[in-house]
């Protein structure tokens, strides 16, 4: 029988050892789906609140450094706009119709003047959105990623950013997944294939510099 505790310990070791891609010169911070529907639902544990507080610190530092902040939010004009799997199965996206209070960004990481908001209808922030054009306009060569869930919308957005040859830095303390094992595996998968998984401390020091 598989010892999952040992497996998690091993992938954390592998993640720490993996060669890094490195940061860019013109980063932007992507905040993925930190909406009430995804951070205040019945299955959330204390890790969601911790990730939100950590992200608030990240955003304060980014704004102080003049680094653009971009929020990705799930907004549906109709629940029929969802992909097939979410229409068939129960999903938190049922709370994401335009005008539903559940779609609001958590007050812990509230949008501020000068920030950018990009609406999306699926997990990735790049599918049929204005994110590509916005990043090009900003001259972005790296995205610093926070958000939820690590194995869902964060991972999908990270993959699509990597496919565009953007440098990607996932801040470990600023992402959350109520599916704990899925989150751990996804951090390793992203570090192995698509991105750098970095600490909040090193990111704050980098932005301060």
Automatic annotation (TrEMBL):
<feature type="domain" description="Isochorismatase-like">
    <location>
        <begin position="28"/>
        <end position="201"/>
    </location>
</feature>
<protein>
    <submittedName>
        <fullName>Maleamate amidohydrolase</fullName>
    </submittedName>
</protein>
<dbReference type="InterPro" id="IPR050272">
    <property type="entry name" value="Isochorismatase-like_hydrls"/>
</dbReference>
<dbReference type="InterPro" id="IPR036380">
    <property type="entry name" value="Isochorismatase-like_sf"/>
</dbReference>
<keyword id="KW-0378">Hydrolase</keyword>
<dbReference type="InterPro" id="IPR000868">
    <property type="entry name" value="Isochorismatase-like_dom"/>
</dbReference>
<dbReference type="Pfam" id="PF00857">
    <property type="entry name" value="Isochorismatase"/>
</dbReference>
<dbReference type="GO" id="GO:0016787">
    <property type="term" value="F:hydrolase activity"/>
</dbReference>
